[in-house]
């Protein structure tokens, strides 16, 4: 079948369209796929052509072809056949090359070579047998038979398509060689096998030798397909040989767990086939494996390029002795020149570029992180370290949890993590079935004696089965019938085993008989026992396994490797205009969910911060005092005669005194402090001053002047509302050995604002009363959350940085309710209501393109202050709320206790009013719903509730796609992937 | 003087300033008889043409899990540092495409990174408002993380960009969201100068980018959200040497032209512009009309070594190669084989100009270089 021939064929059949309907006999799944060629049987010969055609060609198999495309199509097919020759050592190339004559000679000689090789190779048994009939019927030389041998695979893979073509050609009766041929073949098959077969042989004799080979191979295929079980005795001998050989070799390939990865397959998987065998092959292998055992085999990647054994998969050079690096997924091998190009930056270790993201071949798991000499030569140390680290730690390369069965139940993701991260993990965990005795920590392969003692009490797998280790001694340990070796060990350890007792063995080796309370002894207590165990190759508990049984519960929180952190982290973005209390909420969350909310160092810093804050407050107070004193003195001077009573007395050389006056010593200190504050280096002088001024401070605080000034603190605008909390405890706080309490930290200003962004990772602790009635709850508790608090100050108005938070699940926007009557200076240096500033910021965040479709939770903070304030100051002080006309019950005035008649308080009314205002604003901007929650940052419960609400919102969001299948978010797939 | 009076005066002064600015603009327009493209065309220059193999993606650096935000090459040409939203800096060997360092950052929200001139250390900055310096030679700690060797803290807003002063490892210039730029002494960890800010005349919005003049390292230019670019002299911190108006959106990227007398800008208004620092003139606008009305912002720019080509990354994933002389797009890397799937967030040319590296939100970096066989002349 040379190109010219192909063209002629096409011309003749131009008027026909290729209908792709298949009319042939039903094709079962046993269409030839595994091929009776064993690894060793493949004749090794030099590659004839270097041209790596295969990947550039589109595959002819399924595409419907128009009549005018026929030329192309045919030439393509021809090329395919040709390209196969690249792979198989025999000579289809001859017709592909333009200057055929010369090359044909070459190929002929090659063929002869390969033929001769076949005779030598031990695998050529049936090749010989084939040759015999071939030689009988026609005088073919050895080369043909050799090619017969090697060409099986090619033909077989084209089966489906071929028979389609065949059918049509039946109708046509065209002179296409191949079609003619296969028609004959089909006829033969249909009527009587042997006849048709010999007929095809006859024909093939007249053809050009290469095409003849192809056809013959197809013939075989056809007959194999349809007559697998019709092995009539009168079939030609070669036929029967093949049909017998076919299943057998198939079986042999089944035995190899990863048969597809056998080098032999590289040859048989000619490029024509690759794309279709992903599914089909897979089904098949799944079939096979499901029969073989409970193991699930995932899709296997195969190298994209098929090369001869021993060559580099990229440059096709080299032999089996050249050093090569292997792809962990598809087994492709690359020489040192090509490996870096083929594997690129190796983000997941040694995988070729197309395999990145695929699971590694289980048989190569042991090699994870073990570097070859070749790589070491090519790359420097640092690079190697990075690659090996990535290889070991990246998520795709981890053992798939469902491969490991413990006590008859495949593990889920979390269980595997638990198992691997426990203090004494099973060594070299491989896919397989294991049993695990949760009480004692004994661990072994199913049906075998224990191999190791791992950490006990891990909640993995099902309950242990009595026959887990396939024992027959009728002695039970923790409900498992033990093996003879174990019994022997027990006896040697001095345990009474008469009467087939049932023992309970704890992780420390103490054992008791079932139903009895007292501990009878320690199995591993005696020194000799360990020796016995060693002799019998039984495990003894390692130190770590018995020491740490109770730590297991919180293990996940501290040993999570990198790839875990990425996994189930749900990010909440907490944001708000400055003064909205995000910092308090953040601190509260830290205190709520962290075992150690603040480290020693942090606490030390916070202590200094609080102390300097107190100094600052004191300074403000002293400043106020001076002002008040001055005012008073002025008043005094003005109405001296009338207000004699204000005057306490005159001392110290005629200096006037009011209740705001302080003695000279304190005055000196006060002046100093104010001077320091004005110069702005309070932080610099302050640690030293602590000790020095502590007694003075005490004296000052107790002085009546300061107390009097403190009473008028509401007039000091600079003094923040929290100052009172600290000032009242000032004497304690300014002690040198002061330790800030959590509440102090909560109240303290400036703890989290040291840099612009702060985040805390946390898990929601499972409340005790909530029973895990549903197993998915258990997994949810493993979801990790991250609360990110961003300070809006200094981050600009146009929010360039917001796009960094694209991956957050929900934006929690905090607004301080109490700021409706407060004013701040905005960027235009004009006084603006803080609520309006909050609203403006809210608008800019909500309408930011990054947060398109994002859920928002509005936290209305500082409700306590608000409730108190709204009684005094009308909400209409803020222009946005000017239509707030609460309908208050008329008798509210006389029944001050509103809870009696359930009338909402003014505070509640105000809250609802503001919430509705924000909701309207939100829906006018986005057409979505805004979630609103009331919170008081200083109350742990309210913060906890609002964060849980945020979690619920996220969860609803995840579940939404389950109801409407149309929108399927990434997150929901994630969620489902760790719940199985 | 009362507050109201002050306000009035301020208003009047502002009006005067803008009036003067307008006049200046008018005058400039009068003087500006042509732009670069017009002149080159009149001189009969033709745009650079690209063959199919002249610029191909020859490496893909995979390893980040998050959006790549920034990259920088070493002067010794084959190493790249990249910063990504997964909270890592990765140092790559661009020749082998392997990682040499993966540095886990204390704050994951990193926006910029830079290689020191000697290649011994890298700097990065982000939302934590701190510029962190990592010495690549320092030993790793127990968990295999590289410790921070210096924290340059002092900015009150995010650190949007940083660049080492050429030829010395000791100084660094940062730009920040607090409307200032800073010159830092790394050995002491202190800020030697602050450019702009509250009491000085400077940018009036977040500064997004800086670029130091390659031929005179005392001069640098900054681009800001106030849609201006400003030229600074490191010896004069109080005021900008010159302010360049023209853009109609945030200036996301500035980059000095190789000769040091011009610089390029890329902006949210979808244009790149070329300014002359001596005359203060805008020399050329690079703008490609898109079919729809959307104008993709320019995220990052880079000049070729000769300055003839301007590489500009756009937020829609395009990466245009402009002929700076003719003002025409001669190639779009976004349409080539193996191009990025996401927004191109950063660009960088190797020191010898032989390769271009692009970083993208698809978490990959790609290296583009001449892909054919060179003719021996």
TrEMBL record, chain A:
UniProt xrefs under Pfam families? G-alpha (PF00503)
Q: Does the keyword Zinc apply?
A: yes
* Gene3D superfamilies to which the protein is assigned, alphabetical: GI Alpha 1, domain 2-like, P-loop containing nucleotide triphosphate hydrolases
Q: Which InterPro entries match?
A: Gprotein_alpha_su, GproteinA_insert, P-loop_NTPase, XLG_GTP-binding, Znf_FYVE_PHD
SUPFAM superfamilies for this protein: FYVE/PHD zinc finger (SSF57903), P-loop containing nucleoside triphosphate hydrolases (SSF52540), Transducin (alpha subunit), insertion domain (SSF47895)
Query: Domain of life here?
Result: Eukaryota
Keyword annotations: GTP-binding, Metal-binding, Nucleotide-binding, Transducer, Zinc, Zinc-finger
Keyword Zinc in the entry? The reply is: yes
Q: What is this protein called?
A: Extra-large guanine nucleotide-binding protein 1-like
From TrEMBL, chain B:
Q: Which residue ranges contain the repeat WD?
A: 61-102, 152-194, 200-242, 244-285, 337-368
What Pfam families does the annotation carry?
Answer: WD40_Gbeta
Which SUPFAM superfamilies does the UniProt record give? WD40 repeat-like
Instruction: For this UniProt record, give its keywords in alphabetical order, as a comma-separated list.
Output: Repeat, Transducer, WD repeat
- Keyword Membrane in record: no
For whether the record's keyword set contains Repeat, the answer is: yes
Provide the coiled-coil residue spans. Answer: none
The entry's function note states:
Guanine nucleotide-binding proteins (G proteins) are involved as a modulator or transducer in various transmembrane signaling systems. The beta and gamma chains are required for the GTPase activity, for replacement of GDP by GTP, and for G protein-effector interaction.
This protein is called Guanine nucleotide-binding protein subunit beta-2-like
* UniProt source species: Coffea arabica
């Amino acid at each position: 079948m040379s190109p010219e021939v192909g063209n002629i064929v096409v011309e003749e059949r131009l008027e026909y369209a290729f209908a792709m309907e298949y009319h042939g006999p039903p094709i079962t799944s046993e269409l030839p796929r595994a091929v009776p060629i064993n690894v060793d049987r493949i004749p090794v010969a030099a590659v004839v052509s270097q041209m790596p055609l295969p990947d550039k060609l589109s595959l002819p198999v399924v595409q419907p072809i128009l009549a005018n495309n026929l030329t192309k199509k045919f030439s393509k097919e021809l090329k395919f056949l040709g390209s196969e020759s690249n792979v198989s050592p025999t000579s289809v190339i001859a017709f592909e090359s333009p200057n055929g004559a010369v090359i044909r000679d070459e190929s002929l000689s090659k063929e002869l070579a390969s033929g001769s090789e076949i005779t030598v190779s031990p695998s050529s048994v049936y090749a010989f047998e084939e040759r015999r009939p071939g030689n009988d019927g026609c005088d073919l030389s050895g080369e043909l038979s050799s090619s017969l041998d090697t060409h099986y695979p090619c033909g077989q893979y084209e089966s489906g398509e071929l028979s389609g073509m065949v059918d049509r050609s039946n109708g046509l009766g065209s002179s296409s060689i191949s079609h003619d041929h296969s028609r004959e073949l089909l006829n033969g098959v249909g009527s009587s096998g042997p006849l048709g077969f010999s007929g095809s042989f006859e024909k093939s004799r007249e053809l050009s030798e290469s095409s003849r080979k192809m056809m013959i191979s197809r013939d075989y295929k056809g007959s194999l397909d349809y007559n697998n079980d019709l092995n009539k005795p009168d079939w030609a001998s070669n036929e029967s040989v093949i049909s017998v050989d076919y299943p057998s070799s198939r079986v042999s390939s089944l035995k190899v767990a990863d048969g597809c990865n056998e080098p032999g397959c590289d040859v048989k998987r000619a490029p024509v086939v690759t794309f279709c065998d992903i599914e089909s092959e897979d089904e098949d292998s799944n079939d096979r494996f499901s029969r073989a055992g409970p193991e699930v085999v995932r899709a296997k990647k195969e190298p994209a390029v098929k090369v001869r054994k021993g060559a580099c998969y990229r440059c096709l050079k080299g032999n089996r002795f050249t050093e090569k690096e292997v792809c962990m997924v598809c087994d492709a091998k690359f020489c040192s020149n090509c490996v870096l190009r083929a594997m690129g930056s190796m983000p997941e270790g040694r995988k070729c570029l197309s395999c990145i993201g695929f699971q590694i071949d289980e048989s190569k798991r042991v090699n994870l992180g073990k570097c070859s000499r070749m790589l070491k030569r090519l790359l420097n140390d640092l690079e190697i370290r990075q690659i090996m680290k990535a290889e070991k730690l990246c998520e795709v390369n981890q053992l798939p949890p469902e491969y490991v069965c413990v006590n008859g139940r495949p593990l889920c993701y979390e269980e595997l993590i638990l198992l691997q991260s426990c203090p004494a993990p099973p060594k070299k965990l491989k896919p397989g079935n294991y049993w695990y005795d949760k009480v004692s920590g004994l661990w072994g392969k199913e049906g075998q004696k224990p191999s190791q003692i791992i950490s006990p009490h891990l909640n993995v797998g099902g309950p242990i089965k009595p026959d887990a280790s396939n024992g027959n001694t009728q002695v039970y340990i923790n409900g498992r019938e033990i093996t003879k070796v174990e019994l022997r060990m027990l006896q040697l350890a001095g345990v009474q085993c008469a009467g087939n007792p049932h023992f309970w063995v704890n992780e420390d080796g103490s054992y008791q008989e079932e139903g009895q309370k007292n501990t009878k002894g320690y199995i591993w207590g005696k020194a000799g026992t360990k020796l016995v165990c060693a002799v019998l190759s039984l495990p003894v508990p390692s130190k770590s396994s018995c020491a740490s049984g109770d730590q297991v519960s919180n293990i996940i929180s501290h040993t999570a490797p990198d790839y875990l952190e990425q996994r189930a982290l749900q990010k909440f973005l907490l944001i708000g205009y400055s003064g909205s209390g995000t910092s308090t909420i953040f601190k509260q969350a830290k205190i709520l969910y962290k075992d150690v909310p603040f480290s020693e160092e942090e606490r030390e810093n916070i202590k200094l911060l609080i102390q300097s804050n107190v100094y600052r407050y004191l300074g403000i107070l002293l400043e106020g005092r001076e002002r008040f004193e001055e005012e008073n003195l002025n008043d005094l001077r003005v109405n001296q005669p009338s207000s004699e009573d204000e005057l306490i007395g005159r001392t110290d050389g005629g200096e006037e005194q009011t209740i705001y006056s302080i003695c000279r010593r304190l005055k000196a200190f006060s002046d100093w402090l104010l001077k320091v504050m004005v110069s702005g280096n309070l932080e610099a002088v302050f640690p030293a001053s602590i000790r020095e001024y502590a007694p003075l401070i005490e004296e000052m605080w107790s002085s009546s002047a300061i107390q009097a000034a403190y009473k008028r603190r509401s007039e000091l605008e600079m003094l923040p509302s929290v100052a009172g909390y600290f000032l009242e405890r000032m004497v304690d706080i300014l002690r040198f050995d002061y330790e800030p309490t959590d509440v102090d930290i909560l109240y303290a200003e400036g703890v989290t604002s040291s840099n612009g962004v702060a985040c805390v990772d946390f898990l929601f602790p499972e409340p005790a009363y909530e029973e895990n009635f549903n197993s998915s709850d258990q997994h949810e508790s493993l979801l990790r959350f991250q609360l990110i608090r961003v300070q809006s100050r200094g981050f600009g108005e146009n929010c360039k940085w917001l796009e960094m938070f694209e991956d957050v699940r929900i934006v929690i926007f905090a607004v301080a309710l109490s700021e409706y009557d407060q004013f701040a200076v905005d960027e235009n240096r004009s006084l603006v209501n803080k609520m309006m500033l909050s609203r403006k910021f809210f608008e800019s965040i909500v309408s930011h393109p990054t947060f398109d479709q994002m859920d928002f939770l509005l936290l209305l903070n500082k409700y306590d202050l608000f409730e108190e304030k709204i009684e005094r100051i009308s909400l209409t002080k803020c222009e946005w709320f000017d239509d707030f006309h609460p309908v208050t019950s008329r008798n509210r005035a006389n029944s001050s206790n509103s809870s009696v008649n359930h009338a909402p308080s003014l505070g509640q009314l105000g809250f609802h009013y503001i919430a509705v205002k924000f909701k309207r604003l939100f829906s006018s901007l986005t057409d979505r719903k805004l979630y609103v929650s009331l919170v008081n940052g200083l109350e742990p419960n309210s913060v906890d509730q609002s964060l849980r609400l945020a979690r619920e919102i996220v969860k609803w969001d995840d579940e939404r796609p389950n109801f409407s299948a149309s929108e399927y978010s990434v997150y929901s797939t994630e969620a489902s992937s760790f719940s199985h | 003087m009362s507050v109201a009076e002050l306000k009035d005066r301020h208003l009047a002064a502002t009006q005067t300033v803008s009036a003067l600015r307008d006049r200046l603009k008018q005058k400039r327009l009068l003087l500006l008889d042509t732009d670069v493209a017009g002149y080159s065309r009149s001189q009969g220059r033709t745009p650079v043409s690209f063959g199919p193999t002249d610029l191909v993606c020859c490496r893909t650096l995979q390893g980040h899990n998050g959006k790549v935000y920034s990259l920088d090459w070493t002067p010794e040409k084959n190493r790249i540092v990249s910063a990504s939203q997964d909270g890592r800096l990765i140092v790559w060997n661009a020749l082998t495409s392997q990682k040499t360092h993966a540095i886990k950052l204390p704050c994951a929200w990193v926006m910029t990174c830079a290689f020191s001139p000697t290649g011994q250390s890298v700097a990065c900055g982000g939302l934590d408002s701190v510029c962190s310096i990592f010495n690549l030679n320092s030993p790793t700690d127990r968990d295999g993380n590289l410790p921070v060797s210096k924290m340059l803290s002092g900015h009150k807003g995010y650190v949007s960009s940083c660049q080492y002063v050429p030829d010395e490892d000791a100084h660094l210039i940062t730009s920040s969201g607090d409307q200032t730029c800073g010159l830092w002494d790394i050995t002491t960890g202190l800020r030697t100068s602050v450019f702009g800010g509250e009491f000085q005349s400077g940018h009036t919005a977040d500064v997004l980018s800086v670029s130091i003049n390659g031929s005179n390292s005392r001069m640098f230019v900054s681009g800001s959200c106030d849609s201006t670019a400003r030229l600074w002299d490191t010896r004069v911190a109080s005021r900008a040497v010159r302010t360049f108006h023209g853009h109609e959106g945030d200036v996301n990227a500035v980059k000095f032209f190789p000769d040091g007398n011009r610089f390029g800008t890329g902006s949210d208004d979808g244009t790149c512009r070329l300014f002359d620092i001596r005359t203060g003139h805008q020399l050329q606008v690079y703008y490609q009309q898109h079919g729809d009305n959307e104008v993709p912002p320019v995220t990052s720019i880079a000049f070729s070594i000769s300055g003839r080509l301007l590489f500009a990354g756009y937020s829609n994933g395009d990466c245009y190669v402009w002929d700076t002389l003719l003002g025409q797009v001669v190639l779009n890397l976004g349409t080539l084989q193996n191009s990025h799937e996401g927004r191109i967030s950063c660009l960088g040319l190797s020191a010898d100009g032989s390769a271009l590296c692009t970083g993208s939100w698809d978490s990959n970096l790609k290296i583009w270089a001449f892909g054919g066989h060179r003719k021996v002349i």
